[in-house]
Amino acid sequence: MASRRTTSLLLFLCLFSALLSTVTAQTFTACDPLKEDNCPINPALSTTYSLNLTKELNTVLWNTTNGALTYTDEGAEFTINRKLDSPTIQSKFYIFWGRLEVFMKAAPGKGVVSSIVLQSEDRDEIDWEWVGSETDFVQSNYFGKGNDSSFDRGGKHEMGNAMNDFHNYTLHWTKEKLEWWLDGKLLRTLTYDDAEGGKWYPQTPMNVRLGVWPGGDPDGRKGTIEWAGGEIDYDASPYTMVVKSLKVEDFSTAEAYKYGDKSGDWESIELIGANSTFIEEINKPPPKSLSQKWAELPNGAKIAVYASSAGVGLIALLALIFVCIKQRRVGRKEYSLEESKFITDQNNTMTMQSKWNSNNGGYQELRRI
Ligand SMILES: *[C@@H]1O[C@H](CO)[C@@H](O)[C@H](O)[C@H]1NC(C)=O
Ligand SMILES: *[C@@H]1O[C@H](CO)[C@@H](O)[C@H](O)[C@H]1NC(C)=O
Ligand SMILES: *[C@@H]1O[C@H](CO)[C@@H](O)[C@H](O)[C@H]1NC(C)=O
Ligand SMILES: *[C@@H]1O[C@H](CO)[C@@H](O)[C@H](O)[C@H]1NC(C)=O
Ligand SMILES: *[C@@H]1O[C@H](CO)[C@@H](O)[C@H](O)[C@H]1NC(C)=O
C-alpha cells in the first residue's frame, strides 16, 4: 500500500517535472547572460506601480507577446478560443527583488493552464500555475538559471475555487527569501539556502508575464498533457482567465539593471542610472479619447472647425455646380478632367480632417499601438 503510494507519487513528480521542462523550454530568452557578454540591459521599474486591467494596457510598459486581450468591467480576459491560442503579456520593465500582487480568476477546463510568472534573462523563474480541471488547487514553483533537472521544486496548495472567484496571489521576493501568499495567508516560503545554498535561488532582475496556454494540446508531450489534466477539448472553448488588477513593486531603484559577469549571481548585477524612464509614463494621465478632446476644445476653436468644414463643403458644392454647368458647355473629354479636379478637392478635405485627428487623440492612439 505504502509502496504503491510512493510509486504514484514518483510518477506524479516525473510527469510534473516533464511539464516544467516544457514551460521553461517555452521561455528561452534571446540573449543568455550566462553565455554571452553585453546582453541588452534590463530597464528598471524602480517604483510601485498599480494597474487596473479594466482598461487597455499601456504599450510603453507592456508587450503582448502572443494573441490579444479583451477588456471588460471585470478585467482583462485571456482566452483560448482555438488550437494553440495562448494570449500572453510581458512587462518591458524589470524588478530586482520586489513584490507582485495579482487579483485574478484562473481559466477552467482540462488541459488549460493559467500562469503568473516572474522571469529573468538567465531564466531564473518564479511561478504560480493553475490546471483548469483542478479548480481547488494552485501550484507554486521556481527555477534558478534555467535548471529544471530536479523534481522537488514544485508545490501544490489546496484553496477555494480558483476559477470562479478572484483571489489575491502575492509574491514577495527578497535576497533572503521568497514567499507565495494567497488571500493574505502565507502558503510557502523558500529561503536562499533552501535552494542548494542559493545556487538555484531566483536572484536576477525579473519581468512579469501573465498568460494562459493549452498544456493539454493533443500534439504536445504526453507528460505535459497528463500534468495539464488531460487533452484540451477545443470544441468546448472559450476558456478564459481574467486578471482584474496588478500591483508591482521594485525594491531597487535604478534606470536599468545589467549583468556584470556570467555568474548569474545577484552580487554581479549592476544598478545603472538613477531615474527609471517608466515612472513618468506611470504618472501620466490616461490618454484622452477623440471625443474628450473635442469636448475640451474652446468654443472658438470648435466654431472654426465647423466653419472650415462648412466652408470646404460649400466650396465642394460650388465646384460641383461649376463642373455641371461647365460639363453642359464643353464636351465629355473636358468633363473627365474637371471630375478629377473635384476629386482632388475632396481629397484635400479628407487630408485636413485626418490631420486634425492626428494632432488630437489620433497621435496618442498611434503611440499606444
Ligand atoms: C477599475 O476601473 C473600473 C472602471 O473604470 C472601476 O469601476 C473600478 O472601480 C476600478 N477598480 C480599481 C480597483 O481601481
Ligand atoms: C514584443 O513581443 C514581440 C512578439 O513576441 C517580440 O517580437 C518583440 O521583440 C517584443 N518587444 C519587446 C520590446 O520586448
Ligand atoms: C541542476 O540542479 C541539480 C540539483 O538540484 C543538480 O544535480 C544538477 O547538476 C543541476 N544541473 C545543472 C545543469 O547544473
Ligand atoms: C494581497 O495580499 C498581500 C499579501 O498578503 C497583502 O499584503 C495585500 O495587502 C493584499 N492586497 C489587498 C488589496 O488586499
Ligand atoms: C532623478 O530625479 C530626481 C527627482 O526628480 C532629480 O532630482 C535628479 O536630478 C534625477 N537624476 C537624474 C540622473 O536624472
From TrEMBL:
It is found in: Membrane; Secreted, Cell wall. InterPro entries: Beta-glucanase-like (IPR000757), ConA-like_dom_sf (IPR013320), Glycosyl_Hydrlase_16 (IPR050546). Residues 1-25 form the signal peptide. PROSITE patterns: GH16_2, PROKAR_LIPOPROTEIN. It catalyses: Random endo-hydrolysis of N-acetyl-beta-D-glucosaminide (1->4)-beta-linkages in chitin and chitodextrins. One of its GO terms (cellular component) is membrane. Its EC number is 3.2.1.14. It is an enzyme of class 3 (hydrolase). Coiled coil: none annotated. The chain crosses the membrane at residues 303-325. GO terms for molecular function: endochitinase activity; glycosyltransferase activity. Keywords: Cell wall, Cell wall biogenesis/degradation, Glycoprotein, Glycosidase, Glycosyltransferase, Hydrolase, Membrane, Secreted, Signal, Transferase, Transmembrane, Transmembrane helix. Its main location: membrane. Belongs to the glycosyl hydrolase 16 family. CRH1 subfamily. Dual chitinase/transglycosylase that plays a role in cell wall architecture. Chitinase and transglycosylase activities are coupled. Required for the polysaccharide cross-linking at the septa and the cell wall. More specifically, transfers chitin to 1,6-beta-glucan in the cell wall. This is chitinase.
